[in-house]
Amino acid sequence: QVQLVESGGGLVQAGGSLRLSCAASGRTFTFSNADMGWFRQVPGKEREFVAAIKGAGSSTSYADSVKGRFTISRDNAKNTVYLQMSSLKPEDTAVYYCARKKSPVFGDHLHIAYDYWGQGTQVTVSS
Fold first, then answer.
1. By the number of CB atoms within 10 A of the CB, which of 78, 82, 84, 124 ranks highest?
2. pLDDT at residue 103, as a whole number
3. What is the C-alpha to C-alpha distance for residues 69 and 37, in angstroms, rounded to an integer?
4. What share of the chain has pLDDT > 70, as a percent?
5. Strand partners, 69
6. What's the CA gap between 79 and 74, in Å, rounded?
7. How far apart are CA 8 and CA 44, in angstroms?
8. What would the pLDDT profile of 61-101 be if each residue is shown by its tens digit?
9. Which among 38, 17, 14 is positioned nearest to 120, based on CA atoms?
10. First to last CA, the chain
11. Is the pLDDT of residue 106 over 90?
């Protein structure tokens, strides 16, 4: 069993920054071995891939819509993955979720590749 808890969401003006955190835990869960991802969702739309990072942190991937503005990172000593968001736009408003990737077979952007999800944290960007 894996527990993921996001934090750091809030209200920010366009052009501002936020850093989201996702703390992971689980008795048999080795965080450093886990590829992790961030997704976001707005009401009435499908969950959308944002970014992903490999277990060792050496490889990352991003959605085109956030490339150059968002940075995913991790601290394996703290069992935490981060999403640094800069130059935020109103269209970034969503609930942001972190997730553990269950298999390298699927692409990072596919939500079916992930088996454990956090409860989400709301990010609202005002214009």
1. 82
2. 83
3. 16
4. 100
5. none
6. 8
7. 23
8. 999 999 999 999 999 999 999 999 999 999 999 999 999 99
9. 38
10. 40
11. no
Place of tokens 């995913």: 72
What would the pLDDT profile of 29-49 be if each residue is shown by its tens digit? 899 999 999 999 999 999 999
Tokens linked to 81: 């993955």
Nearest to 52 by CA among 118, 111, 92: 111
Q: In whole angstroms, what is the distance from residue 95 CA to residue 122 CA? A: 4
- Nearest 10 degrees: CA dihedral of 24, 27, 28, 34? 0
Tokens, residue 102: 């269950």
Extract the tokens encoding 125.
């960007």
User: In this structure, what token pair is assigned to residue 45?
Assistant: 């739309």
**Per-residue three-class SS string for the chain:** CCEEEEECCEEEECCCCEEEEEEEECCCCCHHHCCEEEEEECCCCCCEEEEEECCCCCCEEECCCCCCCEEEEEECCCCEEEEEECCCCHHHCEEEEEEEECCCCCCCCCHHHEEEECCCEEEEEEC
Band (113; pLDDT cuts 50, 70, 90): very high
